Amino acid sequence: MDCLSLYQNGVDRLLECGIADAELESSLFLAFILDVPRSSVLLNLPRCTKKHIDFFNAYIDRRCQHEPFAYIVGCQEFWSLEFKVTPDVLIPRPETELIIEHFSSIFTEKNTPLQVLDCGTGSGVLPITLATLYPQATFTALDVSAKALRVARENSKLHQVSERIVFNQVDFRQPLEFDGPFDVIVSNPPYVDPATFAELQDDVVHFEPHLALDGKGDGFVIVDHLLHTLPVHLKDGGHLFMEIGFDQQQRAEELLRSLPFYGQYKVHKDHAGLPRMIHAVKV
Ligand SMILES: C[S@@+](CC[C@H](N)C(=O)[O-])C[C@H]1O[C@@H](n2cnc3c(N)ncnc32)[C@H](O)[C@@H]1O
Questions:
Q1: Residue range 259-279, pLDDT digits in tens
Q2: Substitution candidate for ligand 1 out of 167, 211, 223 with most atoms within 8 A of CB
Q3: 60 exposure class (CB count in 10 Å sphere: 0-12, 13-18, 19+)
Q4: Residue 180 above 90 pLDDT?
Q5: Whose C-alpha lies nearest to ligand 1, atom 9?
Q6: CATH topology for 3-65?
Q7: 225 near 243, Cβ under 8 Å?
Q8: Does ligand 1 come within 6 angstroms of the Cβ of 120?
Q9: How far apart are CA 281 and CA 81, in angstroms?
Q10: Which CATH superfamily is domain 87-282 in?
Q11: Best exposed site among 55, 204, 242, 271 by fewest CB in 10 Å?
Q12: Domain spans of the chain?
């Protein structure tokens, strides 16, 4: 079979299974299997071998069960860096790049020796990306999941920043003991209301770790807990960047206003115009 027919066959099967970006995903699977850039895969197609065809069909079968693309190929891009992902970690989302964007706009001097804490590190995207941008910064990254931390450690080695990140298996709902205080705390905590899990896409609810999604109670319990407990680990004038759910702005602002620790705070919108990230400065 020539690769173009294989690609078209993939598009048809993905469409039948209700995958919206069928053309994009079929071409990405083909590029992954042939190990060529996606930009050139349909322009310059080699002949597909039986091995290529078998791999391609197996990937399409898995995608048709709504297994996320990133888990099938085992990696996901974040801030133009490639990260290993497994079903033990949340697939990094573009909206989380908002934390990197705002962090970079505040700390413009890249050689500042910042001490940064990441709460709920998952695949490690936040500290690892920041470590590549800030060569003098050091990081403490924590997660309750030992399996997630294994993936994060591996990613830190892939990006050659492992010497500057300490990974700790810690439950951030328990009292935290750290060297700190830190210059900056970043966090993308779980913030989904578990009662709404049934409304999430199959790809998310059936495949991504519920530990990474479940914000407990009505979805705001973990954010609430972290906003109360993290400031003690921040230096005066230190910065907190935290992702929240698109519908949690009002509650977050009310809470920030009521707490004595935060001098300034603002909820920033993502590129889709949704309020997604708290930036607060400790007084
Ligand atoms: C939304 S994910 C974020 C992962 C990663 N920072 C990212 O942005 O892709 C939240 C992470 O918090 C971790 N987590 C959940 N509950 C926790 C707890 N009680 N203590 C520490 N980590 C927890 C999960 O294992 C998960 O890796």
A1: 999 989 999 999 999 999 999
A2: 211
A3: buried
A4: no
A5: 92
A6: Helicase, Ruva Protein; domain 3 (1.10.8)
A7: no
A8: yes
A9: 28
A10: Vaccinia Virus protein VP39 (3.40.50.150)
A11: 271
A12: 3-65, 87-282
Q: Is residue 125 within 6 Å of ligand 1 at its C-beta?
A: yes
- Cβ of 76 below 6 Å from ligand 1: no
Distance 13 CA to ligand 1 centre (A): 34
Q: What is the pLDDT of residue 38?
A: 79
pTM for the model: 0.95
| Residue 196 clears pLDDT 90, i.e. is over it | yes
How far is the CA of 134 from the CAs of 98, 104, 109, 113, 114, in angstroms? Answer: 17, 9, 9, 8, 8
Dihedral pair phi/psi, residue 217, rounded to 5°:
55, -120
Average pLDDT score, the chain = 95
Cβ of 244 below 6 Å from ligand 1:
no
22 lines ligand 1 (CB under 6 A): no
